[in-house]
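Task 17 of the worksheet. Students: predict the tertiary structure of the chain below and write it out as C-alpha cells. Keep your answer in the requested format; marks are given for formatting as well as content.
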Amino acid sequence: MYDDRTIVQERSERLAAFQAHIAVLFNRLPMLCGFHVTEDLGITQVTVDTWRGGAAQEETDSELCAALEDLIGDSGDDSVEFLRGRTFARALH
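Model answer:
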C-alpha cells in the first residue's frame, strides 16, 4: 500500500531522472540555449547560440525532436507530463 510520502518520493525520483535527461540533452547540443514544448508536444521558440558555431538551425531542431522522442520512449507518460507546456533553458552562471 502506498502512502502519500511514498508517492511524493517516487514522483521526485522520476522528476530527477527526467531533469538528468534534459541536462544530457543540453550537453549533447552545446549550441542549444533553450526551447518551449507546447501543450500538444510541439517544439517552439528554439534558441541556439551561433557563437559556438554548431549545426544549422534545421539540424538542431531535428536533433532536439529526436532526443525528446527518445526521452518520451524511455520514460513514457512521466516525460510527457513533465514536458507539456514548459520552457527549458540552459543555465548560465
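Marker's comment: The CA atoms of residues 30 and 49 lie 8 Å apart. The longest strand covers residues 32-37.
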